[in-house]
Amino acid sequence: MSHDTENRQYEQRRVEKVVEVINNKEENLEARSAGLKQSVVELRKTFWDDVTVNLEEMDDIIETQESIKQQAAILSQKEQFHGKISAEIQTLQRLRNAPYFGRFDFIEEPGTEKESLYIGIASLMDQDEEDFLVYDWRAPISSLYYDFSPGPAHYQTLDSTISGEMTLKRQFIIKQGVIEGMFDTGITIGDELLQQALGNNASTSMKNIVATIQKEQNKIIRNERSKLLIVQGVAGSGKTSAALQRIAYLMYRYREELHADNIVLFSPNPLFSSYISNVLPELGETNVRQMTFLDYLKNGIGGNLTIESPFEQMEYVLTQTESEHYPIRMKNMDYLSTIDFMQLIDAFTSDLNGSGIQFKPIKFRGRTLIDQGQIGEYFYSLDKEIAIPNKMEMVSKWLLQELSKYQQQEIAEDWVMEQIELLDKEDYMRAYQRAEEKMQSSTVQDEEKILRRYMVKRFFQPLKKRVKQFAFVNILATYQQLFTEWNTKELPNNWQDIRAQIATDLSQKFLTWENATPYLYFKGRLLGDSADRSVRQLIIDEAQDYSAFQFAYIKHLFPYTRMTLLGDVNQAIYTHVAKENPLIPVEHVESHERITLTKSYRSTKQIVDFTTYFAPGHEPIEPFNREGSKPELINLQNENEWMTTVLTCVEEQLKKGNETIALICKTLEESEQIYHLLQDKLPIHLVNEETYTFEKGVLVLPIYLAKGIEFDAVIIPDASADHYSLESDKSLFYTACTRAMHALTILCRQEISPFIKLVPKELYDVKE
Ligand SMILES: Nc1ncnc2c1ncn2[C@@H]1O[C@H](COP(=O)(O)OP(=O)(O)OP(=O)(O)O)[C@@H](O)[C@H]1O
User: Fold this and answer.
1) Which CATH superfamily is domain 605-766 in?
2) 208 Cβ inside 6 Å of ligand 1
3) Annotation-wise, does 234 bind a ligand?
4) pTM for this structure?
């Protein structure tokens, strides 16, 4: 028998033994779980039997409460225990199919015995709970697997560095308990395994990469030192993957203190959010709080303003070039994205400490109780040294006191009795009961008084709530003054133009995307920020799309939160934000650690080689060695053939077995046109801002919604020069082309884009 066969048989026997342990453990746990479940059900049923209820004397009441508490504690303990057992069972079930994916042999010190360690998605102890049969991929020792090839190796524990020698590194593909592939590996983690993983068809949801994490990705995943970790990585280099495995790692490493609620992930769009939503559960972790920055802003700004989405802004930039206001809007975008503008808001706010804040009158049943003048007078009578948000607190307290006085006065008014009479029976009974509770020996007059009091209180409650939320401050009107009346020496050159357009938008209660963050920042300067202190880790994917202002705001909101920013300057499609972006190394980005990823895993070597020529950045891009066919350029001679050619391209890709085929357009406008032209000819789905999930098949979508996602085949329906020629189009074109895993087809209806001309001819096939 050959050595290889012997090895394989040995490993297969081991897998079977491990699966046996898994089965035994699961059986035991199931039995315990069933017992526990039964006892929880019984306990719930008989809860009151074991509680001594006696409410006669104070002592008895206390005793009764204690008894209830005790009983509830027993129940909750049992329920928690049951939950823990269920989680353990789920872990075992996940392990059963493929208990591990890797093995390495390690000799800690010369002369000591070699240890074989097996790595999987969770730890597994043997039947006696003494030795590890499988180590969790996140355990300190498992980092050896990702960081070293056979030879000297070391890893970090909590308090020391352990060195030794790795004598073997082996990878497995195990399915349903059977070893389907086994490779002893050298320098990189399993070219073979990675080839297999990347060669598969694209999926509509992202997969975890724990079996094939690369050394440079592992640095991101296990980084614990940095308060601010910045990752610049070319398209397809595994930034999102690294971010998600990093979250799983942090949740494991800080299991006691870090919960899913303490981690927030900002993602670029809802489609992307659902695309990545399976990764953490697959790894046995709960999904963290995921939102788009737009959702975050909408939440903070509230409902009375219309907020433009970044996609609408993008669509405007790309389609409204002929509009009269376009040049000014572009200036706005530039200026409102800068730290200078943030400083301008600070200067304005500090002037507001002297005068200028607009208030809203407090009205009750159509009558003004306290007008804005009175509120302003009170506010400006307070000490200037006190910060504005603190003064707002004081105004709110004062208003609540004033309202209480009005509340008293209203009790005797006629409308109160009318309202009492209007109460339906249930409400009336409730009001009456309350009235009765409040008085022991009531007279008829007392009773009416209490009912009146109840009714007035009920009417004043929403008003008081709004006062507590500072609804008496007219944020919008105050902010508008920045663009109408306010003057200072430090205004930018083209301020007159900028401010007129913004003032018009604000008067229509419309916030452009570039103005949404400044508005919320300003609101915070007046009312105080409502930052969520429970956020301990903030992960921002596609970080190149955030402006300097937005970053500064995020840092201002989460001053003590650890942050991981991941992005790619090559894909900075919102060009006005590219300046002062922290992904570009500049002096003023405070102390941080940077990791650069240059290897691209998503696309075939042929696609990466092609796209490298028009990548806007200057970093090297290295393809992972996976072969495919060259990108194809179809240069149409006859415009009329355009749609039939697109159709033929789609059909060809389907024939080749590609399951997700994306027609990626520059804008939504273009996507809609193509959708309408093709919808009768083949099953095709249009993806827009509201698309939350996608199916396999043929999709048509704009570039900005394809961000972060990948497809088997990408077809660019029109890459003529009139679509892609400006410097700002380069990152759009790069982003579109780099979504392709296996095939890229580019059509040109007219003169071909100059970006394609940058690529040496031998790197693509041309069809006329
Ligand atoms: N170590 C790895 N093992 C297996 N697959 C990997 C690995 N790294 C990356 N990939 C795969 O490469 C593809 C791209 O990864 P990912 O989406 O994380 O990259 P990205 O840098 O966020 O890309 P982009 O910026 O272009 O959106 C995915 O299919 C991912 O599963």
Assistant:
1) P-loop containing nucleotide triphosphate hydrolases (3.40.50.300)
2) no
3) yes
4) 0.88
